[in-house]
Amino acid sequence: MTAARLRALGAIAAGLLFGAGLLLSGMTRPAKVLGFLDVFGDWDPSLLLVMAGAIGVHALGYRLVRRRAVPLADVRFWVPERGAIDARLLFGSALFGVGWGLAGYCPGPALVSLASAAPGVLVFVLALILGSKLTAALGEREVRPSEATAPRV
C-alpha cells in the first residue's frame, strides 16, 4: 500500500471516528453547545467532559506517536510552528467564539450535521465557506505540510 493511500485511509478513519464521537456525545446539537455557554442559566457541563476526554485521548496518542522515529505514512512529523499572539489571532478567535455562541456550531459538528439538512446548519456551512473564500481573496493562504518549515517532533 502506498504512503498516499495509507494517509487517505487514515484521514477517512479519523474523520469517521471524530464524526461518530460528535454524534454520540450530542455535540452536533446546537442546544447542547449553547447550554454549555449558558453558565448563569441552565448550564450543561457535558461539553467540558467531551473536551476533557478528547484531550486525554490526544495526549496519550501524542505520547505514543512521539516514540516513533518517523510516521507510518510520511517522511517526517509535521508540527505547527509556534507563532506570536497578534491582533489577527485575537480577532479570529473572537470571531470564532461569537459565531460559535450565536449558532451553537463550530466547523466540525456543522459538517457532521449537514446530513440533517437543517436550515440553521446549511446557513452556517454556507457562511463558513464564504468566510473561507473571503479570507483567501484577502491574500491569506493555507500552508500545506510540504511548504511548512515546522520542526520535527
Main β-sheet description? none
Give the uncertain stretches in residue-range form.
none
Gap between N and C termini: 25 Å
Radius of gyration: 18 Å
Fraction of residues in helix: 55-70%
Which structural category do the helix and sheet elements fall into? Answer: mainly alpha
Shape descriptor: globular
Strand composition percent: under 5%
Tally of separate helices: 6
Kindly state the mean pLDDT as a whole number? 84
Can you give a write-up of this model?
With about 150 residues, the protein is mainly alpha-helical. The chain has one domain. About 60% of the residues lie in helices and about 0% in strands. The chain is built from six helices and no strands. It has helices spanning about 5-25, 30-35, 45-65, 85-105, 105-115, 120-135. The longest helix has 23 residues, at about 5-25. It is globular and about 50 Å long.
